[in-house]
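ok so for the tutorial part 2 we go from a plain amino acid sequence to predicted structure tokens. step 1 is just haveing the sequence, like this:
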Amino acid sequence: MDRERVYGVDFSGARDAGRRIWLAEGRVGGGRLRVEGCYPAEELPGSGRDRDAALGALRRLIAGEPGAVFGLDFPFGLPLPLLEGTGSWEAFVRSFPADYPTADAFRESCRARHPDGELKRQTDLETKTPFAAYNLRLYRQTYYGICEVLYPLVREEAACVLPMQARRADRAWVLEICPASTLKREGLPAQGYKAKTELGQRTREAILAGIEGQGQVEVGSAGLRARIIEEEGGDALDSVIAAWATYRAIGAPEIDPVAGLRAYALEGYVYV
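step 2 — the prediction. this is what the tokens look like for a chain of 272 residues:
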């Protein structure tokens, strides 16, 4: 185990991203991840409710935690057919803001290059992620995640984005995760827990109990557990699931996948 601090980030590209992005932070010890905090991005230092302030605060957190690993739930790349002429994932990210000046331009460009339906990456097919990177329900998340989080971190060499970049001990590691895929793989409810109803809350409680019941994660206090369960949108719980997937990834024998390496190296890889 190379990292003691783990952050799970339930991401959003909405205008009020500071309210919608949630982070779960934990510490590794005793063979498990202890979740010590869970909060919206607007509570980060120097943050706010609007997207620019929240994403700036998130970038500073990642850059300022060189010994931590972060799991974020947005696509880090595009399918190979949409990457023609791209020599590397890093080149793709470095040119992304110039290639796509707006989120809508990004979606329309992807659709124009492949008009016969939406394409998924190899890792999306393998992990059964719900949507393509430029799907109507996801494209803003993809766009702002790459443009406003990954691009500045890569440009400033402030983090290592795995497995496309080599790991370094003096930088934070950033991984792509998908809470829905993690829940599906573990046989936990992947639907219904975002409902603002009593049944939705009971489902969130059952999911959290199922996660803790596997012995890999524990929530630090009753008050923190209540905050995670009572947050009606399910974003707080998603951040805990993200932290769980991230913890499992760094605890695996090999964090850099070998199978399908070429596709992963260009398209990105989802850790579940």
